[in-house]
Amino acid sequence: MSEGYDGEQPPDDGALAGGEHQHVGWFRFYLADERWEWSEQVERMHGYPPGTVHPTTELVLAHKHPDDFGHVSATLAEIRRTGAAFSTRHRIVDTHGDTHHVVVVADQLFGDDGVTVVGSHGFYIDVTPSAQTGARD
Q1: More confident residue, 10 or 73
Q2: Which of 13, 19, 71, 131 has the greatest CB tally within 10 Å of its CB?
Q3: How far are the Cα atoms of 37, 43, 68, 97 from residue 50, in angstroms, in the given order?
Q4: SS3 for 96-135, per residue?
Q5: Residue 31's closest CA among 106, 121, 120, 123?
Q6: Contact present, 133 and 127 (Cβ < 8 Å)
Q7: With 80 as the cut, is the pLDDT of residue 129 above it?
Q8: How far, in Å, are 76, 87, 108 from residue 80 at the CA level?
C-alpha cells in the first residue's frame, strides 16, 4: 500500500465502502420491447442463480416490496414516457422472501446514432443494513 501526501496510509477499499463488501450489479432496460438485462449480481439480489431467469417488467415489478410497488411502477411509467435518467430507493423481496433495500441509479441508454434514447442503464446497489441482511420485513 502506498503512502498518501501527508505520510499516512490511505484507507483500504473496505473502509471506503463502509467497512463491508457492497453488493452492486448492472441492468439495462430497452423501451421499445421492454426488454431487461441483468448482471449476475442483480439476479442474485432477486434470489435467482446466475443465468436462470430472463427478467421482464412483470418479474421486476413482482419483486417490489408491496409498500414500494406504487412508487416504483410510477417511476417506470415516467421512464417509458420520457426516457429520462432516474434514481430510486426501494425494497425488493427475493425468491426466499428476504427483503433487500436497494438504490437504483440509471442514465439514458442511447442507440447507435448517439442521439436517440432507446432505454435506461445503470446500477442496483444493495444497501441493506447488515443487521437486517436475511431478516424478513
Answers
A1: 73
A2: 71
A3: 12, 6, 25, 18
A4: CCCEEEEEEEEEEEECCCCCCEEEEEEEEEECCCCCCCCC
A5: 120
A6: no
A7: yes
A8: 6, 14, 11
Q: What is the mean pLDDT of the chain?
A: 85
Mean pLDDT of 65-94: 96
**For residue 16, what is the enclosing H or E element?**
helix 13-16
| Cβ–Cβ < 8 Å for 23, 31 | no
Place of cell 465502502: 17
Q: Is pLDDT at 136 greater than 90 in this prediction?
A: no
Among candidate residues 22, 31, 2, 7, the one with its CA nearest the CA of residue 124 = 22
Q: How does strand 23-30 pair with strand 35-38?
A: antiparallel
Give the three-state DSSP class for 41.
helix
pLDDT band at 22 (very low <50, low <70, confident <90, very high): low
Q: Which of 106, 125, 105, 102 is nearest to 117 (CA)?
A: 106
- The residue behind cell 448492472 is 26
Cell of 23: 453488493
